[in-house]
Amino acid sequence: MISLPIPKVSPGVLVLALCAFAPAQNQPDALIISPPKVAFGNQSIASESAPVQITVRNASNSVIHFDQIISSGIDFRSSNNCTAGLPAGAECTVQVRFKPAISGDRMGAIAIAASDSGSPHYVPLAGTGQ
Description:
The chain is mainly β. The protein has no helices and nine strands. The chain has strands at about 30-35, 40-45, 50-60, 65-70, 75-80, 85, 90-100, 105-115, 120-130.
């Protein structure tokens, strides 16, 4: 365990300490996500794109449990057929659609929280509203 000194600050100042733990090196991710990012390209404002499929495969030897699979940003929505527990070697899919609310570059992500050591997993999403 590493101890970090807490700096003295003025009253009313919030100090935020972050801790990060790295997974063991040379250990492959238990969840294989393909594609690793999605670029939708140009899309008319308020018009929804065709769905893009993201495959999530369990490459481990045990069941992986999903806590949550969500999309961020007002321009992206997702659905999935991933059950609470994904058996070893099995796969499920996440479908994501892009419907820009305003013009310009739009970004978001699919966040997958699961019981594997690499969790959470993120799939960056991008598109341009026209």
